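Quick review question:
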């Protein structure tokens, strides 16, 4: 499932007021598999969203704190993928 720019701009939620928050949330939602999880490395995630690694980490942390996404580490190494999933809003 792909999301259009118009859908990103129209997406409304109190915790998703900033465009960067919407982009990250919808990037995760669009990459979720039938298990409900999206597996992304930091490199893949930054390439997908266009955000710097530090900006991406800040946005993900904010969305986790707001309960809008869940995060689960796959491995122990720095380059291992992390699993993300969106929660119902």
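Suggested answer, residue by residue:
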């Amino acid at each position: 499932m792909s999301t259009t720019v118009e859908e990103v701009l129209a997406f409304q939620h109190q915790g998703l007021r900033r465009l960067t928050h919407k982009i990250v949330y919808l990037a995760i939602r669009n990459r979720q598999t039938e298990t409900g999880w999206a597996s992304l490395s930091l490199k893949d995630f930054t390439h997908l969203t266009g955000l710097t690694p530090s900006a991406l980490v800040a946005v993900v942390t904010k969305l986790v704190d707001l309960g809008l996404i869940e995060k689960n580490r796959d491995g122990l190494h720095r380059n291992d993928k992390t699993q993300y999933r969106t929660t119902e809003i």
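Why it works: The CA atoms of residues 7 and 26 lie 9 Å apart. The chain has four helices and three strands.
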